[in-house]
Design goal:
Blueprint lengths: L1 H25 L3 H13 L3 H6 L3 H6 L2 H10 L3 E12 L3 E10 L11 E12 L2 E5 L2
Antiparallel strand pairs: 1-2, 2-3, 3-4
Length: 132
């Protein structure tokens, strides 16, 4: 009886852990998605960065093309999310300070920073970066 009880408890724990893992990925906040997007760009994990875009962008630019272009572009060194403003529950706008690494290709000896605005939309229950 004790063995059967232990198996039931273990099965319940496994279900709870796998269920909560799926739930947290679909309920990520806009700020969490922005962190995933920019941290993956900093680490040059462009396949993960690409996953953060909304469907219309991915329909026009395939993942391999995106990765190839990102590898040729200026490397993102760091980012700072300055503000995230919600527009209802389907849209958000963020202001992010980006710092790009020095680039021999671009003749830039020092890092350069700029503030960008990022638009986000909720698509199939998940927050995505909207480019156009």
């Amino acid at each position: 009886m004790k063995k059967q009880y232990s198996l039931i408890v273990i099965a319940a724990l496994v279900l709870l852990m796998t269920g909560s893992g799926c739930k947290s990925s679909t309920t990520a906040t806009p700020k969490e998605v922005l962190n995933k997007y920019f941290s993956s760009a900093v680490s040059q994990d462009y396949a993960t960065t690409y996953k953060c875009y909304y469907g219309a962008y991915k329909a026009k630019i395939n993942k391999d093309e995106y990765i190839r272009h990102r590898k040729e572009a200026s490397a993102l060194q760091s980012y700072d999310i300055l503000a995230v403003n919600m527009e209802g529950d389907k849209a958000a706008h963020a202001e992010v300070k980006l710092t790009f690494a020095p680039s021999e290709k671009l003749g830039r000896k020092e890092p350069v920073s700029t503030v960008v605005k990022e638009d986000m939309i909720k698509e199939e229950g998940e927050w995505k970066i909207k480019v156009w």
